[in-house]
């Protein structure tokens, strides 16, 4: 089984960290292929960068020439998952939805701890669209930019722990979702400080994607995510036609 894991920003070191995290939970025989977009922002922290990332991720996947069995979009609260589902005939899993759905198996209420406050509405909207807000206690911001997760890891851990504790003590969350792909591999430190289960969206997405592939399931194509209708698209950066993309390995 081959799973493509797409970073939504152009920071290669973050792509590698996301890929390493994915491999730690992948089953024997599952190949994780980490991919970085060819264009876009070095971090995604708002709507403009998110929509740009959506286009870049679709471009990267559509131009991947080897067979694959599933795609993971590793951006928390980012746009684009629906476009990938139209383009591909393999499962597409978004880490935002993967983390939240997994959290609901582990406790009554969950909270998300993310980066900057401006990312909070995007995450809330993504969770609402996915129907995952009924058991959402809160979405809290650590106050750190995405790139600070790498440049100052100790400060990042302290800020995430602080907001995670507040979510548990004040918002009554019983599970914490790490609200950024760049927070991969912080689960143990945050769990030790809070005493609650910590869900990393990348790892959750890998296990969900593997399960869907093993069950032979993929996106329904009868209505919402039907393939794009054939038409002339001017100036589109994708060089291959959508019908050519996404064949199982």
UniProtKB/TrEMBL annotation:
Residues 224-249 are annotated as: Disordered. It comes from the Bacteria. It catalyses: D-5-benzylhydantoin = L-5-benzylhydantoin; a D-5-monosubstituted hydantoin = a L-5-monosubstituted hydantoin. InterPro entries: Asp/Glu/hydantoin_racemase, Hydantoin_racemase-like, Iso_Racemase_Enz_sf. It comes from Glutamicibacter soli. Coiled coil: none annotated. Belongs to the HyuE racemase family. Pfam families: Asp_Glu_race. This is Hydantoin racemase. Its EC number is 5.1.99.5.
């Amino acid at each position: 089984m081959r799973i493509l894991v797409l970073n939504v920003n152009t920071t290669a070191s973050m792509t590698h960290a996301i890929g390493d995290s994915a491999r730690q939970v992948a089953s024997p025989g599952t190949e994780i292929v980490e991919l970085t977009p060819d264009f876009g922002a070095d971090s995604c922290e708002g709507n403009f960068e998110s929509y740009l990332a959506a286009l870049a991720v679709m471009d990267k996947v559509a131009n991947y020439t080897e067979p694959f069995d599933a795609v993971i979009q590793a951006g928390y609260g980012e746009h684009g998952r629906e476009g990938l589902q139209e383009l591909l005939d393999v499962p597409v899993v978004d880490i935002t939805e993967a983390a939240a759905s997994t959290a609901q198996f582990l406790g009554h209420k969950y909270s998300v701890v993310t980066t900057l406050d401006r990312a909070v509405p995007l995450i809330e909207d993504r969770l609402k669209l996915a129907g995952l807000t009924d058991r959402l206690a809160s979405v809290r911001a650590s106050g750190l930019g995405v790139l600070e997760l790498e440049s100052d890891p100790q400060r990042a851990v302290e800020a995430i722990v602080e907001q995670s504790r507040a979510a548990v003590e004040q918002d009554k969350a019983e599970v914490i979702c790490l609200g950024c792909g760049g927070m991969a591999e912080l689960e143990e430190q945050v769990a030790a400080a809070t005493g609650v289960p910590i869900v990393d969206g990348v790892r959750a997405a890998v296990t969900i994607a593997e399960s869907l592939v093993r069950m032979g399931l993929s996106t329904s194509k009868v209505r919402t995510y039907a393939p794009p209708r054939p038409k002339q698209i001017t100036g589109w950066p994708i060089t291959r036609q959508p019908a050519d993309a996404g064949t199982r390995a």
